[in-house]
Each structure stands twice: as structure tokens, then as C-alpha cells.
Amino acid sequence: MTAITDPADLITDDWRVHGSIYTSEAIFAAEQERIFRTSWLYVAHESELRNPGDYKTTYAGTQPVIVTRGADDGRLRVMLNRCRHRGAAVCQAESGSANFFRCPYHGWTYRNTGELRGITYDDAYSDLDREQLGLTQLPRVDVAHGFVFASFAQEGPSLQEHLGHALPYLELISRQGPEGIRLSAGSHRLEYEANWKLQVENTIDNYHFGFVHRSFLEVLADRVGEAPPIMQQILFNETYRTVDLGNGHSVHEFGDPRAGNNGAQLGDLPFNLIVFPNLCFVGAQVRHVLPKRAGHTEVRLYPMLHEGASDEYNTAILRTHEGFYGAAGMGGPDDVEVAFERVADGMRATEQEWLVMSRGAHREQPQPDGTIVGHSADEVPQRAFYRGWRRAMAIGGAA
Amino acid sequence: MSALTPEAAATGDLAAVAAFLYREAELLDGYELEAWLELYAPDATYWIPQGGRETDPRFDVQLMLDDRRRLRERVLRINGGHAYSQDPRSSTVHLVGNVRIAGEEEGALDVRSVQLITELRKGRQLLYSAHVRHLLVPDAAHGFLIRAKEIRLVNNEVPLGNLTFLL
Ligand code: FES
Ligand SMILES: [Fe+2]
Questions:
Q1: Can you tell me whether residue A171 is helix, strand or coil?
Q2: ipTM associated with this complex
């Protein structure tokens, strides 16, 4: 095994990638520090928090947070789900509406703005500064086309700057339905025993589709009487392309991204999008990847329903989504099996540590606006992600 | 059969109903999926809810809500040999208990049971417990046909791994 001290050295200029990025707890901890504590992190969609007082619980990196819409001021806030007294999580529910959170341990209460409202039997404290004892807020919260992001960093690029060339795609997503989209159907929750980045980098990987999803293609062939031309499209359709959008983001376009639907399945986006570090869009879903440990990940898949469409249409989106995704889907579990867990198995063979991530590197086309265009089944999205990763992880580097 | 009163159903045919459920379990555990599929009526639905009693498949995402066409596709996929999430296949034991006939619904017997499904795959053994509901209609060949099956897993809201074996 090679001893590497600077994480930036884990990715070579000719796109050899060191397997320890998936297995090392030290690298996992460094990612939390250098990426998740500096970047903008997706936490919610506005449709989940429509009314004053609405809240949801989720994770910012590995840290449990509560996202609230202020009961009085309607403002979105993101705060640590951790009582300032002795640390119990103050909110258990996944979502709901509340003016106050009451810690179950000793009964301290907080407004849904995070402000400390009450301490039980407080005559036992002589000099407590209550103003300083609200739920700890993430200093920056911002919204882009309905998607709510927060950052642990006081300063740094604005959300708009961070999203950069990914922004127009978020706008297209926000306009999928006649009156927008909503995340009101709940989410599929998956867990697997492998690294979080495997799920992100598999979100745009047209190279794998015909192999890992062969059984799904057989089902489709049975349904329509002939093999679907997905692989031919991926290999030969020149309007299918991958784009490195900068800042770690990437997209795969199935033809014109402004077209309503890629024709493959009901409700599907005409593109797949990765927003660095852990937000993905594929099919009709928002995919939120939650790192837990180097070798353990949770993923939440939120179907996007079309606002203004009929109930029947939205129900059909759900059934179509379930056909492929979720623990019982006919596609997603094959990714878990092969692209995540079998990779984790392979990574135990540490005598040879290096992976090859150079597919199509020689034919990447840098554009005047800084984006990089490549073929559909090339590893442009993986390189886009790891360019962002490498820059953030470099000693002394910043996201 | 179709004129069965709830009382008669509860006393007279419970043994036949239970035997049918055991037969279904046996076919699943024995990988006889094509024979298993034969137990489902042409208009059958097969539902693994996600969420509590209040979950509504019109508005909420479910783990599975198949019509018979898609159920057949599941069988096709698993038997086709290229479903990696079932390579190797899950070994299962379905333990069926607490069988009772709760009533009738549109000519079908509303049968409730509990099931403990033990699954072993790649050296990992997992347990799934469920409240199960079958709507059974009489059938000459099989005794009954399944018009609807509903499998309410107790853990249907926690993050799940691989539920691609048929429950
Ligand atoms: S830990 Fe919350 S009140 Fe004590
Ligand atoms: Fe896949």
C-alpha cells in the first residue's frame, strides 16, 4: 500500500484514483471537515415547508439538523438538532408543524426559530446567558429555484456562485410541472454498506446501464416486444452528452434539456444532474445522499410530483418510480448490489489500490464558459465530481 | 363459496384458507415463482405499503404496488438470471400464523395473517415481520385465487436494503 498524506494525491493527473477514498475513515472525516463544513448543502425543498411553523429533520453531512419555517416571520432556518443543555436531540419527527420544540430530557423549550424560550426550574442557574443558548444555527441558508441549501461556513461563495452552471438545470427542474414541482409523496430510504460517493458517481454513469440493468432492459423488451435502444442511444446519439459544469457539478443530457421528458418513463427529467457534493436528480426524483461512515450510507429518494397536474398523473409518476427504485425496485437494488457493495468488496483487495477513471478523457471538449463536454458514456461526470473533491480536499485548499 | 357467511367462513373454511396460505409460502420459499404467479387473479394487486395505516398510494410513495402484469415482470426478471440483486438469490422461510377470516369483500374472503419472513443472502440473515391481508376468491383449480395481497412490514419506514426477493 502506498502511504499518501495529502488527499489531493489520491487522484493523479492521468485519472488514476486511489481506492482508499471509499474506505478510509480518516478521509471520511476529512471530507466532513473540508467539504461538508465549507460547501453549500441541500436540506429541503420549499414545498416541504410551505406554512409558517413547518419543519423537517434531515442531515447536513453527518450532522442531524432541523429545517424550519419561522412561525412568526416565515423565514427558513437550519439548526442543529441538539439541545443546548446536555445535548439530547430535541425533535424526533421527520416533519410536522410546531411553534416550539421541547427537549424531552429536562424540558428546555425552543421556539421554532431556535431561540431558547424556557428553562425548567431555572432558579438553579445563577448566570446563564439565554440569548447564547438557542439551537445552533447554520450561519447561511439560501434558496435556489425552490431548493433550500445551508452552509456551516460563515463566509465563502454565495449559493448562486456555488451552483454556477448547475443553476439553469435547477430552474428547468422547478418548471417540470405546469405549476412547478412538490415533494409531498415521502421518500424511499435505502441504506448500503459502502461509501457515499459511489451513489453520487453512479447517478450519471451511462456506461453501466446495459450491464447492471440488463434484467430491467429484459423486462422492458418483454413489455414492448423488442429490446429498447438505450445502449445505442448512449453510444451513438450525439445529442446525448455529459457536461462538467464546474464546482464538482455535472449533467447528462438526453437530447434537449428543455424538452419536457426524455420519453423513457413518465415524469422523468430530460437529464440527470449532480450537484456537488451530495444532491442528485435522476428520473423523477430528488436523491439526497447521506454519508454515515466511510462504509455506510443512507440515501433518500423523493419523487417529484407535478404541481398543477392531475392526481392520476402524479399517481402514475409514483408507480413508475417504484418500478425501478426503492428497496423493492427492479433497478436501484442492482446498483446497490453491484456498483456499491461489490465495489466495497473489491476494495478489500488492497494490494492494487488504483482505479482507472480516464474513460473519454482525451476527447473532453473544454468550452469558452469553462464547462467541459464529453460523450454520453464517458466518465466526465466522475471527473467533474473528483475535480471538485480534489480541490476541496487539498491541504490548504478550499471548496 | 361465494355465498359464505362470515361465521361459516370463520369456522368451516379456515383450514382451507390456511392451507392455501401455506401453499403460497411454500412456492415462494421453493423458488417456484411461475407456479406462485398462477395463484394471482388477472386483476390482482400486490402491495407492500410504505408508511403507517394512513399511507395512501394515490399520494404517497410505496415500496411496491403491482398489478399482475408487473408482478409477472418481477418473476421474469428474477428468473432471467441477470438480476444482480438476486444473484445469489435470497433463501427465505415464510412462517405464517394467526390466520383468520375477517369477513367478505365483494365476493372475496378477507383473510388476515401475520408472517415472519427470514431471509438469508450472502451470509447475512434478516428478519421481516408483517401483517398480511389476502383477498381470496374461489377458484376451481387452486381452491382460491388471490385478488389482492397486502404486506405491511413493521419496518417499512426505516432505511431498507434489498427487498427484491418476493415476499
Ligand atoms: S438535555 Fe435537553 S433539557 Fe437537558
Ligand atoms: Fe444504475
A1: helix
A2: 0.93
